[in-house]
Amino acid sequence: MTETVTDVRKQMRGFIEDNFLYLRPDVELGDGDDFLALGVIDSLGFVELVEEVQSRFGIAIEDVEITEENFGSIDAIAGYVERKRAG
Amino acid sequence: MCGIAGIVRAAGEARVDEDALLRMARAIRHRGPDGYGLALDEGAGFVSTRLAIVDLPCGWQPLEDDAEGDLLVYNGEVYNHIELRDELRAQGVSFATSSDTEVVLRLLERDGLDALRRFNGQFAFAWWQAQSRRLTLVRDRFGVRPLHFALRDDGTLVFGSEAKALFASGEVKARPDLAGIDDVFTTWGTRPPRSPFQGVDQLAPGGFLVWEGGKIVARRRWWEPEYGDAAAPDGDLLELMRDSVDLRLRADVPVGAYLSGGLDSSLISALAQQRKDGELRTFSIAFKDPRYDERAQQEAVARALRTQHHVVEAGPGEIAAALPDVIRHTETPLIRTAPVPLFLLARAVRANDLTVVITGEGADELFWGYDLFKEVAIRELHRRDPDAAMAMLDDLYPYLGETGARRGPAFTKFLLETGAGNDPLGSHLTRAEATATVKAFYRDEVAAEIGAGSSLERLRAQLPEAFDSWSTLERAAWLEVTTLLEPYLLAAQGDRVAMASGVEGRFPFLDHRVFAYSAALPPERKLDGMRDKIALRDLADGLLPAEIVERPKQPYRAPEVAPFFSDDAPEWVADALGADALEETCIWDAGRVEGLLRRCRTGRATGVREGMALVGILTTQLWHDEFCGPERYAYPGETEAPRVRIDRTRDKVTGETE
Q1: Helix (H) or strand (E) holding B215
Q2: What is the reported pLDDT for B230?
Q3: CA–CA separation, B557 and B573 (whole Å)
Q4: DSSP assignment, residue B279?
Q5: What class does CATH assign to A5-86?
Q6: 3-state secondary structure of B479
Q7: Predicted-complex ipTM score
Q8: Residue in B closest to A46 by C-alpha
Q9: Nearest to B493, CA basis, from B200, B260, B206
Q10: Which of B180, B208, B532, B605 fits a disulfide with B599 by CB distance 3.0 to 4.6 angstroms?
Q11: Is the pLDDT assigned to residue B403 strictly greater than 50?
């Protein structure tokens, strides 16, 4: 069984809140907000985020796909996961 | 090996309080548990605490020159003192003692600061030229021995082996230096000239300072690590290493060895055992947690070398219990608990009646053993042959997988891209970025005051002129020596935790001749693909078991979160990290810290970065409380009688009144 786009969003929000947002209690993170621009995630945090997407959703991520366009926000990740699954 | 301290005032008529000297002596008495001495001159006072290693009955300090009235307080060893003494004797110089201290003073008197280049050793000293009222402070090439000082507005200079001697003087108040602390959370240690304390400087490794008339009139490096010499190395490395080890076995007390189970300390132990006729005693730290433990390798080496082997086992409980003492001695916040087991190991060495140990420190910096050098090489290879570089990366950091920083395409991309451009600090940006995790917990106003990137900016401004002419690996080596070796490994993980128990560490790889040899060695004799320290591995072949000769480096680490969040964690942990204590220290944001603590309590803080953050915050709290807080340590005076007492002020007063 695979998660819906909504599930992906929910799971990633949980992961980001748990791992990063406790450091930025001042930020109300929207699904479309840019993690890096808001300073919610630093460069190594970005690494952890990408690795999490790979292991959690069982996706093989190509080097060229590791971009802000695909991983820069909750919406971006949900869209990326959906596209990868659609193949 | 000793501790030194002193006060000099701009005007000779100004007094130096003997009680202040007694407090300073007591503050660094752990460095010299065998006794202490003091000297009072006009507007000047000096103390020395002594750990007797050479010339046990006669080597007391301060050492006085009868003719010139010069005084020397000296911490450390000049290993080639026998050869230098013979040379001076041949020129008619006579000696009252057989100590290296007297050789240092005589050679300084003959050659001035040109004498420094003749010294092979590890030392920090203060040379008082009474007639000109000139004080010269000197530190050895790599900064094995520490030396702190503060220049007050009235021209008074206060110095000491450790900062606590300055605070004990009553002349200097301990206050946090945010930029100094930020160095710890950038490259693991505060780089000289800064210290973590405002107004307290550290003399640079290979540096000297001259104070006269209330002013610092000269402050320079007399030695610096240099690279890029195309000439082939002189001589034979095995002979050089044998000589370096032999020099460091010179002592009037027994010398033991630290044995980590890796190549470097095993090689040093093997060379030492050949000279000790089978009597070498080796000491190892073992961990209850198998992820950190190297007991099997240590025992294999000890068996092969037939040493008398001692093991100290450290678990979470021992690490938590000792941390406050460790911070008292290191005088700095830390990002790792790794100094704690070494503190416990030195205590065990002392309990076994040894006061000197040789270790393998320095080999990874000189012969490119750290993974950081491999990162640099892989980035270079990636430009030419990406597939080969990716294959090499698979062998790097195998231990990260267990600790939460999972390896995958993003981690690979990060390693390859961070520092891949022309940034001179490129080799160290991955470490700086990982360590900067701790900075996310700064209060906003603290972060603003420090300024983003200021520690790295100061480092950029410090780069030597020749830096650009060196290869990327040589640049990485210079940065490693400058940012990690002295500020962290030789200090918090070296001198301080050993001297806490009055144990002197000696480092055969940090003989300046070995450095010169390594710098002139062709790069492929240091690192070739993923095979590191090749020249040393070749040397070890036949001296050590084969599995040790080819053993990849295992980074020395200790548990970081478990000691402080197990059921039997000490009560002070919660107090130190509580809202009141955080408010008192005024560095960390309580809300963010609470978020981290929640993760620690629920077992979710499993990553390397969270471990660093916890240790960084907790040790800053302990450090602040010990030195800067409202209940900071009150420094009592020494009550024992001094072994040497020179009082020229009294002589003069007596002379005038009689």
Answers
A1: strand B215-221
A2: 62
A3: 21
A4: -
A5: mainly alpha
A6: helix
A7: 0.84
A8: B410
A9: B260
A10: B605
A11: no
pLDDT at A63 over 70: yes
Q: Which two tokens stand for residue B525?
A: 């004799």
Q: What separation in angstroms does the CA of B135 have from each of B65, B144, B157, B395? A: 15, 21, 9, 53
| Cβ contact A25–B413 (<8 Å) | no
Asked whether B618 and B576 are in contact (CB, 8 A), the reply is: yes
pLDDT in tens, B74-89: 999 999 999 999 999 9
Using an 8 Å Cβ cutoff, are B604 and B640 in contact? no
C-alpha to C-alpha distances, B611 to A24, B137, B202, B225, B360, nearest whole angstrom: 19, 38, 28, 33, 26
Does the pLDDT at position B655 exceed 70?
no
Closest CA to B574 of B612, B623, B629, B621: B621
CB-defined contacts A:B, below 8 A: 64
Q: Is A67 on the interface with B (CB under 8 A)?
A: no
pLDDT of residue B654: 39
Q: Find residues 297-336 of chain B whose CB sits inside 8 Å of chain A.
A: none
Residue type, B110: R
Mutate to test the interface with B, among A17, A23, A64, A68 (most CBs of B within 10 A): A23
Q: What is the largest CA-CA distance in chain B?
A: 89
Concatenate the DSSP letters of all residues of B563-614 into one string: HHHSTT--HHHHHHTSHHHHHHH-SB-HHHHHHHHHHHHTT---SHHHHHHH
Q: Check CB contact under 8 Å for A42 and B599.
A: no
CATH superfamily of B237-366+485-549: HUPs (3.40.50.620)
- What's the pLDDT at B653? 42
- Parse chain A into domains and list their residue ranges: 5-86
pLDDT above 60: residue B400:
no
| Residues above pLDDT 70, as percent of chain B | 97
Q: Is B482 exposed, middle or buried (0-12, 13-18, 19+ CB in 10 A)?
A: buried
User: Domain locations in chain B?
Assistant: 2-224, 237-366+485-549
CA-based angle B187:B191:B192, to the nearest 5? 175
Distances in Å between the Cα of B75 and the Cα atoms of B268, B496, B557 are: 24, 13, 29
Q: Which residue of B has its CA nearest to A40?
A: B440
Q: Which two tokens stand for residue B279?
A: 């009597």
Q: How many residues does chain B have?
A: 658
B10: helix, coil or strand?
Answer: coil
B646 CB neighbour count, 10 Å cutoff: 21
Model confidence over A10-57: pLDDT tens digits?
Answer: 999 999 988 888 888 778 899 999 998 888 898 888 988 998 999 899
Task: Specify the CATH number for B2-224; select among 3.30.160.20, 1.20.1290.10, 3.60.20.10, 3.40.50.720.
Answer: 3.60.20.10
Whole-angstrom distance, CA of residue B314 vs CA of residue B300: 20
User: H/E element holding B550?
Assistant: none
Residue B126: left (phi > 0), alpha (psi -120 to 50), or beta? beta
- pLDDT category, B223, cuts 50, 70, 90? very high
Residue B656, pLDDT > 70, answer no
Q: Which amino acid is at A84?
A: K
Which pLDDT band, with edges at 50, 70 and 90, does B393 fall under?
confident
DSSP class per residue in B358-407? E--TTHHHHTT-SHHHHHHHHHHHHHH-HHHHHHHHTTS-GGGGGGT---
Q: If you search the block for the tokens 């806490």, which residue do you land on?
A: B500
Q: Would you call B410 and A55 a contact, using CB atoms and an 8 Å cutoff?
A: no
* CA–CA dist B599, B199 (Å, integer): 37
Task: Look at B410 and A42 and tell me if their CB atoms are within 8 Å.
Answer: no
Chain B nearest-CA residue for A68: B410
Cα–chain center distance at A2: 17
